[in-house]
């Protein structure tokens, strides 16, 4: 058996636990916003954070903030931090970044989507369905931004 195949067989990826770290829901302009014509403008902000717990355990937190406005008034603001503990072993270093920065958040996203949809409806607003997110693309963009920033800093020092 080749070393590459042996390495692949020694790989471990397991989702140990998924949990909600934080939920916040604000409706600063109720009940007045209910009397306005419902033409919402919604903005979504995503962020991920990785915390190494041990040599093989990582906590990945996906934070999603949704702000919906009607005209100049904020109808609601939802913030959800969904986390998971992932057991990861046997992967080469170059694969760890995409695993932790794209694959793990992708596993957490359905839980965030459900939590946000549920809390928005409980606030007496129309259902909000977050569209799928391409975490691979977001991770690649983030890596490009980091590379550009590092290059700019390097050029500034010379």
Automatic annotation (TrEMBL):
Matching entries from HAMAP family are given as:
SecB (MF_00821)
Q: Where in the cell is it found?
A: Cytoplasm
What does the record give as the function of this protein?
A: One of the proteins required for the normal export of preproteins out of the cell cytoplasm. It is a molecular chaperone that binds to a subset of precursor proteins, maintaining them in a translocation-competent state. It also specifically binds to its receptor SecA.
Q: Does the keyword Cytoplasm apply?
A: yes
- The protein depicted here goes by the name Protein-export protein SecB
Q: Give the similarity note.
A: Belongs to the SecB family.
Pfam families assigned to the protein according to its UniProt record, in alphabetical order:
SecB (PF02556)
Report which superkingdom the organism of origin falls in. Bacteria
């Amino acid at each position: 058996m080749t070393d590459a195949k042996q390495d692949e067989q020694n790989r471990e990826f397991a989702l140990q636990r998924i949990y909600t770290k934080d939920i916040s829901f604000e409706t600063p302009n109720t009940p007045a916003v209910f009397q306005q014509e419902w033409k919402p403008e919604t903005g979504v902000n995503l962020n991920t954070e990785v915390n190494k717990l041990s040599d093989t355990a990582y906590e990945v937190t996906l934070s999603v903030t949704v702000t919906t406005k009607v005209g100049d008034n904020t109808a609601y603001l939802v913030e959800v931090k969904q986390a998971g503990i992932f057991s990861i072993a046997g992967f080469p270093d170059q694969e760890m970044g995409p695993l932790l920065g794209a694959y793990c958040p992708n596993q957490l996203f359905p839980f965030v989507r459900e939590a946000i949809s549920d809390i928005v409806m409980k606030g007496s607003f129309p259902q909000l369905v977050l569209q799928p997110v391409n975490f691979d693309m977001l991770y690649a963009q983030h890596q490009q931004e980091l590379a550009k920033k590092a290059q700019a800093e390097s050029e500034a020092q010379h």
